[in-house]
Known about the structure:
The chain is an alpha+beta fold and 285 residues long. Helix content is 41%, strand content 16%. The protein is built from 8 helices and 8 strands, in the order H-H-H-E-E-H-E-E-E-H-H-H-E-E-E-H.
Amino acid sequence: MQARPKTTLPPPPLRFSTQTRRDPGGIQSVAMALRLVAHLSVQTEAVGVTAIAEALGTTKSRIHRHLQTLVQQGYAMQDRMTERYEVGPALINIGISISAKHDLVSVARDSLRELREVLGHSVVLSRIEPDGIRVLLTLPGKSLIEIGVKPGSLLPLHATAQGKVTLAFGDQEMRGRILDSALVPLTPKTITTSRALAADLAKTKRQGCATAPNETLIGFNALAAPVFDSRGVLAGTISIVDSIQYLGVVPTDEQVRHTLAAAARVSASLGYKPRAVTAAVPVAR
């Protein structure tokens, strides 16, 4: 059973003292760097130092100093031929990550609600990160006792249904890294050998979904299915979570069918088109 979060006071509003304006290495410098990043992000082509300085109302030497720092950190890059600047890979990756996160949540929300209404379990939307599965959204189930996963939680890859889906359908380099690493036991039921995990992942690939009964927490189970983007790349997972009493070691055909269908709807909304339509393999009993 999930403990209710403690009430916390909201952070105080940001206030900028006039003293910071006299501190060239403080907030004023950070503000200029952010303005510079924002300016580069809306340009349709690379721009020179003079044009940037004029647009931001400051000196070329100041802009040049900030640009050099941004280039070193990957937030800007310079064309060696023209000496003009544009956004760098680090900034592009941040934009892609934020966009993917918010797109996934907005696209999946209705399907998550429908899944919760049909089955009554808590429903969880997660995305893949290098070190685990990040919970983006949780819709509580209909039970009087709330069982779920807190948004923002980072779930382990080897001991959760969401993690198994990620390892089975996601990046193979990540899969190899996890299989070669020490698998930390969270409960006596957690898979802790590479051979057993590899076999479980093969089953997950065949069935199109994964479970992890008692592997993260005794008395707790989850059933997860993959969500793919328009490129056919794993974008995240949709899962139902509940106690073993209501989501058994072997899920019912209804639970499997509706969870797979919800994930398929979200994948379709993201532009995913399966290469071939095949019947889902029933979860092994």
